[in-house]
Structure formats: structure tokens, C-alpha cells
Amino acid sequence: MKIKKHILLAGLCAAGITAITSCSKSSFDELYRDPGKISEVSADKQFAGITYSYRELVVPSYWNYFVILRSTANRYVQATGWANENNQLIPGGASTQDRWNTYYAGLAQYREFEKVYTALPEAERTQLRIFYLAAKIFFYDQTQQVVDLHGDIPWSQAGMLSTNGGNYPSSYAKYDTAEEIYKAMLDDLKAISTELNTLPALTSGVSTSFKTQDLINKGDITLWKKYCNSLRLRMLTRVSAASTFTARANQELADIIGNQSTYPLTLTNADNIDISVFNSGSDINARGFRDGLESWNANIAGKVMIDNMVSKADPRLPFIFEPGQGANGAYIGLDQSLTSAEQTALISGTPANPSKIAIYNRSTYSRNEYFPGLLITASEVNYLLAEYYNRTGNNAAAKSAFEQGVKQSIALFPAIRALSKDNTTTAAAQPTDAQINTYISNIGWGTNNIQLIATQKWLHFNVIQPLQSWAEVRRLNYPVFTFRTEVSDIQKTVPTRWNIPATEVNLNGTNYDAVKSKDKLDTKIFWDVN
What phi, psi does 275 have (nearest 5°)? Predict the structure, then answer.
């Protein structure tokens, strides 16, 4: 049996106009509903469909890593190395278009969920309220990433074709400003956080259904509370320096951080928010990670990251990277200041003199078919707390949160390696307390603490969450990277945003005209003020 997967027509995606392509997805027959093809639907299965629509943006996939991340975010933060090329800092049209389409496919799925949910009798809506709240949290997480990439986007009126009864002209969506979207999401997430604390106990049937359809937290409402508040923490921190949000961010961050019994956060790896892979043969899998990271010499370690980890005796090093074949166990990263010819020779090596350039550990990463799709981790949350405490003058709390973030990160990578069934590289020994303490001492604390926090975020995100890494590098301006450019290059600096895709410009041109003046690679997102 087959069901269908949405592929949105480029440029019409904001309206929710779709073409359909057939894909074999039999294991999700009972979870996922394409509103264009199946007449019988339920809110709970539609909820699972939202997660399913976005799965390749969360769980490592060939398409996301090779088509989108390889030549954009991974490059901008030097999470990987690459052979320099002309105009290498211009995001490719295919990359931006594909990711745009995928976001709006999920948005159309979310709108259909809203439509189905709001049409239910009031009593049934009350019983299924947890599905509605959880869907919003996950959808807002995906939306924040798109806003951080493009700035203003069609949003509040997007994906309404089905709701509008198939009326195409009325379904082309206006653009909302990035500030408006952030405000709307923060308002709603605050209300959701409060409501989750007073949500009535689920009925037995709803509880069972929620556990089945919830592909993220397996029906654990406490984890949804932590997801909601941790997402608020991330978003509020990101906008905290923007003048229109500073006062609000300061107040709400103080409320969340000062009342963690009311607003619980993800503080340990046991509470990480992710999409786990339970069966690599199912549709939720990381099988495509191998070709996504290893194809076309994409699996190359960058010099800046390797040098940082080596110089500080980072215990994560053998879990995250493996030495080049000709390096005699040494970890050597690719220098981006070299010419393309010099880099290519170093990457390729020869049979007599194999490459010395390190790569991401294949058994931990690319050949680990059980690599989870991480959404919120304890390390990220602790680093956000450290930044807040540092900014508000609580040095002891900042130091404690920072060190907890480091420890949670060090613990995470052996745990991910333990999920792998691949033994291309032998698993390293578990880091000892002595190694961890030495590393923390080597990092230091007390001089330019924001730089230390930003660097640890970057190391932790590496190629796992490069979009979050790129957003934080833009916001905090650390770490600092140098790029080789040519006189003929059109774009000589890392972009501060992506352009709106060409098909959206062509097909939703009237609405696009309102934001056209901002649609430049060097126009900063509103929160990028430093």
C-alpha cells in the first residue's frame, strides 16, 4: 500500500498549493494523512503527519545534508572543511528553494490539522487539546528556523488553500515581518506553557493515542512542558538585544529561570527533545546520513574546530572525529586559507601518502542509522542559562551552568555512539572525570565569557544543528572565521540571511513586492544587532 507525500510547487507553497508524488510509506499508513488524497481523517493522526512532514529537517537525511547544509550553514560556521571555489558564499538556489518548499509542506499539514481540530465538537476538542498544544510547539520551532534564515515570510495567512475551499486567488499569502512572527509565537508559547500546567488529566483513550502519535516525546507531557519553555528560552535570548524585545525578553527570561518548578527546562540529557530512531528500516531513520555527509568529499574536518579541540584536550574529540588515514593518529583539520588546489591535494592524498585530514567519526555520525534528530539539548539550555546569568552579573551561577553544559555535551556524544550498529571506527573509552575536569580547566572562565559560551555552543552544535549554530554565530559574533575569496567573487562575506526563493518571487510577486527592498544577502535579521 502507498500513501502520498506533499511536494509543494515552488512559489505557490505559501498558499498551500500542492502537487503530489507517490512514495512508499507503508509504515505510516495509520499516522500520516495527506489532506489532498485521503477523505477520512482524525486530529491525532494529522498531528503525527506534521512531525512526519518535517522529519528530514530533524533526523539526518541525504537531502538535507548534501543539498542544503553542505554548501551553506556548515560552510558559514566552518563546521566542515571544503575545497575553496568561486562564489562559495552565495547560497545555492536549489538549497534555499528545497528547504522553503519543505517548510511550507509542513505548514500546509499544520493548517489542515488546525482545520480538522477546530471543526470538532467542543467536548472532543477539549479532550484532544494536548495534540493542539504540542503541534504548535513543534511548528513554532520549525518556523523560528525559517524566519532566522529569511526574515519576513508569508505566515499568518499561508497554507490556507484547503481552508479557503480551493480558492487560489484568495490563498496567495501576504508577508509577515520577522518581528511580528516572533511576537506571535512568543505570545502563544507563553500561553501554552501556562495551559500545560493546568491541563486536565487525559482520558485513557486520548493518553494511549497521544503516546502512539507523538513521535517526539512519546506522550510525555512533562517533556512537552520542557520543550515549550526551553524553546521560549532560546527565542527570548535570540531577540534579547533587539530594542523592541529587550524589556520583554528580560522580564520573561527572569520569570522562566527564576521559577523552574513552574517553567521546567531541559537540563539533563535524559530530557533532551528529539525524534529518536527505533527501527532503521522504518520511515524515521538516519540511513541517508551516510551519503549526505560522505559524498563528494563532504566529510572533512575544519582546522579551526580541530585545533580548538586538540589544544584544550577535548574529551569529545575521538567521538566526534577520526584521524586521517595518513595522520598516524593525529587530528588535523583542513585550512581554509589555502588555495583550492592545495586543499584538494591534502584531501585526496595518494596511495603512498594517504590524506592526513581528519573526518567526522563515521560510526558516531554518518554510518549511525540510529542517529537521533536533536531539537533541544541540555547543553544548549545550560549555555543559554550561562549567558543569562553572565549578563545579569551572577558569575557563580553562570560558571556553574556553563560547566554543566560542557559536561552534558561530553556525555551526549558517547551516548550517540552507543546507538550505532556500525564499527568502522572502534568506540573510544568513556571520558573520565579527570579528563573532563582537565578540559574544563583548560577552557577557563572569567575572561570574555560570552566568547567561551559561544565557542562551546559551536562545538556542541557542529554538524548536528548547523542552523542553530549559524544563528548564534551571527548573534554573538563568535567564533571568528576567515574565508578565502577571489576578486571575481560576487559575495565576499558570509551572508547574514538567505534570499527568498526565485519561484516564490515569480509566483507570489504582488505580496513579495512589500519585502523586496530587504531581500538582500547582507540585510541582517532584526535580532542580529551586534
Answer: -105, 110
Residue closest to 347 by CA, chosen among 65, 74, 80: 80
Which pLDDT score, from 0 to 100, does residue 183 have?
Answer: 98
Q: Are 316 and 309 in contact (CB under 8 A)?
A: yes
- Alpha carbons within 13 angstroms on the beta-carbon side of residue 455 total 19
DSSP helix, strand, coil percent of the chain (3-state; round to 5): 50, 5, 45
Note the pLDDT of residue 40. Answer: 56
Residue 309, H or E segment: helix 303-311
Q: What is the 3-state secondary structure (H, E, C) of 378-415?
A: HHHHHHHHHHHHHHCCCHHHHHHHHHHHHHHHHHHHHH
SS3 146: helix
Q: What element of type H or E holds 22?
A: strand 18-23
At 500, list the grid cell.
Answer: 527568498
User: H or E stretch including 469?
Assistant: helix 466-476
pLDDT digits (tens, 9 = 90+) for 143-186: 999 999 999 999 999 987 777 777 666 678 999 999 999 999 99
| Residue type at 409 in one-letter notation | S
Cell triple for 421: 550498529
* pLDDT of 18 higher than 60: no
| Pairwise CA distance, residues 309 & 317, whole Å | 6
Q: 228 vs 221, 376, 471, CA distance in Å?
A: 10, 10, 19
pLDDT band at 38 (very low <50, low <70, confident <90, very high): very low
How far is the C-alpha of 16 from the C-alpha of 350, rounded, in Å? 51
Buried b (16+ CB within 10 A) or exposed e, 213-232: bbbbbebebebbbbbbbbbb
Q: How much of the chain, in percent, has pLDDT values that exceed 70?
A: 92
User: Distance between CA 523 and CA 530 in Å, rounded?
Assistant: 13
Secondary structure, 3-state, 194-263: HHHHHCCCCCHHHHHHHHHHCCCCCCCHHHHHHHHHHHHHHHHHHHCCCCCCHHHHHHHHHHHHHCCCCC
- Average pLDDT over all residues of the chain: 92
User: What is the model's pTM?
Assistant: 0.93
Q: By percentage, how much of the chain surpasses pLDDT 90? A: 88
Q: Which tens digit of pLDDT belongs to each residue from 204-238?
A: 999 999 999 999 999 999 999 999 999 999 999 99
CB atoms within 10 A of CB 364: 27
- Can you read off the three cell numbers belonging to residue 15? 498558499
Q: Nearest Cα to 360, choosing from 419, 424, 432, 412?
A: 424
Strand partners, 376: 273
Which residue do the cell numbers 576567515 mark? Answer: 482
Query: Residue 41: its pLDDT value, please?
Result: 73
